[in-house]
């Protein structure tokens, strides 16, 4: 009798162990901690799509790639070549005799390892000279007529603080003799993060 009781007790114990193993809640794998890229980080983008002031409208989106990696403490957080989507925030066509063609762009999203992340950046402003002049200041770091980015002193979140930093192009001379703004592919533009970006 004692042996039978011991056997039954052992069986019940084993059943309890198996039941606990099957019924125990699954432990979710710990989430990978997010990396914070701080506001103020400079993002350098190389355009892919041509941007023409005559065809562009506010709200249109354009493709580019990150031309310099984003690094923190020596580690590459966002690699060079990451896909960038830009949106035209403002497009203006200058008059025949005066005024400037102008395009303001900002980054809409950046794709890293197949995931698209929305970001908030400064504006990058490209413009031609006014008053019907055929040329104005050259591209920063590049050749061609017309385009330059200006920083707006004391500006807030909408300040145009980016810059054209390379690439050939700017303004093509239209039939009227007035520079006609085009931002060609391979133009380098700079933007600044206005809000922290968690990735």
Could you explain how this protein is built, in words?
The protein is mostly beta strands and 199 residues long. The protein has one domain: Lipocalin. The protein has one helix and 15 strands, in the order αβββββββββββββββ. The strands form four sheets. Strands 2, 4, 7, 8, 9, 10, 11 and 14 form an eight-stranded antiparallel beta sheet that branches. It has a three-stranded antiparallel beta sheet with strand order 3-13-12, with no helix packed on it. It has a two-stranded antiparallel ribbon with strand order 1-15. A hairpin with a 2-residue loop joins β5 and β6. The radius of gyration is 28 Å and the shape is elongated. The protein starts with a helix and ends with a strand.
Largest sheet: 8 strands, antiparallel
Question: So what's the CATH class?
Answer: Mainly Beta
Which percent band covers the strand fraction? 35-45%
CATH architecture: Beta Barrel
In the residues, how many domains can be counted? 1
Counted by DSSP, the helix tally is: 1
Helices and strands: which structural class? Answer: mainly beta
Helix content: 10-25%
Order of helices and strands: HEEEEEEEEEEEEEEE
Mean pLDDT: 74
Low-confidence stretches: 131-169, 171-176
End-to-end separation in angstroms reads 66 Å
**Overall geometric form:** elongated
- Enter the CATH topology name: Lipocalin
Radius of gyration: 28 Å
Count of beta strands: 15
């Amino acid at each position: 009798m004692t042996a039978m009781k011991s056997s039954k007790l052992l069986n019940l114990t084993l059943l309890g162990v198996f039941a606990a193993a099957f019924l125990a809640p699954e432990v979710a794998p710990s989430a990978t901690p997010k990396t914070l890229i701080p506001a103020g980080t400079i993002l350098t983008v190389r355009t892919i799509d041509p941007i023409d002031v005559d065809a562009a409208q506010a709200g249109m989106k354009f493709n580019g790639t990150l031309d310099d990696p984003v690094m923190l403490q020596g580690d590459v957080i966002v690699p060079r070549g990451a896909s960038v989507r830009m949106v035209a925030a403002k497009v203006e066509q200058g008059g025949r005799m005066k005024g400037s063609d102008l395009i303001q762009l900002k980054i809409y999203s950046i794709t890293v390892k197949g995931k698209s992340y929305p970001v908030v950046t400064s504006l990058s402003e490209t413009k031609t000279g006014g008053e019907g002049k055929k040329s104005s200041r050259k591209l920063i770091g590049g050749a061609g007529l017309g385009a330059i980015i200006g920083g707006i002193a004391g500006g807030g979140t909408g300040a145009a603080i980016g810059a054209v930093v390379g690439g050939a192009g700017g303004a093509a001379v239209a039939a009227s003799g007035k520079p006609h703004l085009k931002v060609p592919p391979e133009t380098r533009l700079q933007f600044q993060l206005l809000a922290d970006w968690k990735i």
